[in-house]
Amino acid sequence: MKSVESYLKATLKKKKALLFVLIDSEASEIKSTVKLAKDVEKIGAAAILVGGSSATDQIGMAEVVKNLKKSIKIPIILFPGNVTGVVPNADAILFSSLLNSENPYYISQAQALGAPNVLKFGLEALPTAYIVIGEGTSAWFVGAVRSIPFDKANIAAMYSLSAQFLGMRFVYLEAGSGASSHVKPEMIRAVRKVFKGFLIVGGGIRNSYTAGEIVKAGADAIVIGTLAERGGSKVLNDIIKTIQSVKK
Ligand code: 1GP
Q1: Quick check: pTM over 0.90?
Q2: How many Å apart are CA 111 and CA 115, to the nearest integer?
């Protein structure tokens, strides 16, 4: 694999939209985690994200990533909620700044503390603006987020434009894992108008209709965690089919 970023771009060109499956390394045993990753690779997921805002067991996460690496070919991309989310053997990391945090630790300090290990472990850094929408989720709470209301599309667009001007090549619009509401198509459309890079949308996506609407609005990749963990492989199958047949 040349680089994860070029793989993602090339795969996006071919498939029109990508599915990333989020694995919480603390949610289940290694055996079932590996099985889940193999299953979603088979149905066409483009990458596995490992991490989340409340995954803090670095040793456990390193073990999960090591085992995943032996079992699947699609890239393993770290999705850290803190410096503890930087572990060896993954292919890349969403090197993210939580742009709408009220705590500078999540905007630039954790990044500074984590950067030496990103280098040491040879992880490809994908510069990402992480923007949290809505309230009440772990990402919102842990990240000390000043959340953007779901209906304030223009504010999300402003943050995304600033991400572009800051040179970030990825934006991740996050409603939060298990969120009762997903990011609305109107907001995605507003962001898509101004942000030219790779647009990831996740949180609260539970069916193929929603996934299709999110991709139609301009998302390049959607992230599914909770549904995959609960074993929704038929729904995941439908989601992949739907997002890859959507006309943007
Ligand atoms: C959370 O966007 C991801 O970081 C996935 O969310 O668990 O709601 O699918 P769900």
Answers
A1: yes
A2: 6
The CATH architecture to which 4-243 belongs is Alpha-Beta Barrel (3.20)
Distance 193 CA to ligand 1 centre (A): 24
Tens digits of per-residue pLDDT, 174-209? 999 999 999 999 999 999 999 999 999 999 999 999
24 lines ligand 1 (CB under 6 A): no
The tokens for 68 are 């995943």
Q: Does ligand 1 have an atom closer than 6 angstroms to the CB of 190?
A: no
Query: pLDDT at position 106, please?
Result: 98
From 174, 201, 230, 239, give the residue whose CB has the most ligand 1 atoms within 8 Å, as the site to mutate: 174
CA of 160 to the centre of ligand 1 (A): 20
Residue whose tokens read 């108008």: 193
Ligand 1 atom at minimal distance to the Cα of residue 227: 9
Instruction: State which ligand 1 atom lies nearest to the alpha carbon of 52.
Output: 4
**Residue tagged 């040793």 (tokens):** 59
Q: Which pLDDT value is given to residue 110?
A: 98
CA torsion through residues 67, 72, 77, 81, sign: negative
Residue ranges of domains in the chain: 4-243
Average pLDDT score, the chain: 96
Radius of gyration of the chain (CA): 16
**pLDDT score of 248:** 67
Phi then psi dihedrals of residue 238, to 5 deg: -60, -40
CA–CA gap between residue 90 and residue 5 (Å, rounded)? 14
Ligand 1 contact via 22 beta carbon (within 6 Å): yes
With pLDDT > 90 as the criterion, what percentage of the chain qualifies?
A: 91
